[in-house]
Amino acid sequence: MHDGLHHLPDAYRGVREMLRVCSTAAVIVEPADAPLTRLALKVGLAGDYEEAGNYVYRLRTDKLRRLFSEENVRGSVMRQDLVYYQPWTFRIYRLFARQPMFSLFRLFFYVANVLFGRWGNSLKAVAWKI
Question: 32, 60 in Cβ contact below 8 A?
Fold first, then answer.
């Protein structure tokens, strides 16, 4: 699931259903309820609602771990990253489309994720059943 569960009023119920119907593993990429997310909300870099008016329900790693344990998955891996993709920023990204700016942008984002990613706003999780 990629950026779909956060539209549900109970994303964790959606995860349970994914685990029920999947035969091997479930892969989840969703917004994270994380320190950097909360900071971005406070300073106005992120919002609780998408442009279309949908509320964004964010997932927590501790709740996912508990859910995976309750559902008896054999193993799981989780990772958070720093991602920034507000629609108005796409104009800014054009500045970095060509070399050497693209390489500098990639290096900056890599370093930012090494330093701050574990508190980032994007949660990736894999839970396998076999």
Answer: yes
Q: What is the pTM of this model?
A: 0.80
Domain boundaries, the chain: 5-82+117-128
Q: In the structure encoding, which two tokens stand for residue 52, read together?
A: 């279309």
Which parts of 22-74 fold into alpha helices (H)? 35-43, 61-70
102 with 11: CB under 8 angstroms?
no
The tens digit of pLDDT for each residue in 82-124 reads 887 665 566 777 788 889 998 998 898 889 889 998 888 899 9
Cα–Cα distance measured from residue 56 to residue 34, given in angstroms and rounded to the nearest whole number: 13
8 A C-beta contact, residue 71 and residue 119: no
Cα gap 123→43, rounded to integer Å: 21
